[in-house]
Amino acid sequence: MLSPTLVDRLNVQVTLEFYSSNLYLQMAAWCDHKGYPGASAFLAQHASEEYQHGRKLFTYIMEAGGLARIGATEAPKADYTGIGEVFEQTLQHEVMITGKINALVKAAMDEGDFSAFQFLQWYTAEQHEEEKLFRQIVDRIRVIGADGKGIYWIDKEIGKLAKGVSAT
Ligand code: FEO
Hints:
Bound molecules: MU-OXO-diiron
CATH class: Mainly Alpha
Structural class: mainly alpha
Radius of gyration: 17 Å
CATH topology: Ferritin
Low-confidence stretches: 164-168
CATH architecture: Up-down Bundle
Order of helices and strands: HHHHH
Shape: elongated
Distance between the termini: 29 Å
Helix content: over 70%
Mean pLDDT: 94
Number of helices: 5
CATH superfamily: Ferritin, core subunit, four-helix bundle
Largest sheet: none
Number of strands: 0
Oligomer: single chain
Number of domains: 1
């Protein structure tokens, strides 16, 4: 059974994961609007993954006897100076989320809640993969450059990373 403190903290993370989903979906819209279909498909697919991260936490809270709650989220930024800024921001966002997950893992450990601690390991591993993925994209953009032909190849490469877009 989750403590009231852990329920509150996990609910904050639920809201953050849903915010991440909105952020990436908004970025996907910007990329589509500017003519970057590969990046748009990748980000839309990632938005669906973030939604699932939120749902997984939501279900865990319910199963562990807590009241799952969705908090308010602000509107994500909708304008970017270029694809470089979009992906620099995804990386910064994931680094911030990793910090939040680490703090949650520590809170579960401090409370001796080993069920929550074990559940959160999935998120720890996921953050490692996501930071690695976004860092690779940012590095590629920095090396190739986001002007002229470079942007065409970058968009194609990022599109290959999309595993298929789903609306859920
Ligand atoms: Fe759910 Fe990209 O972290």
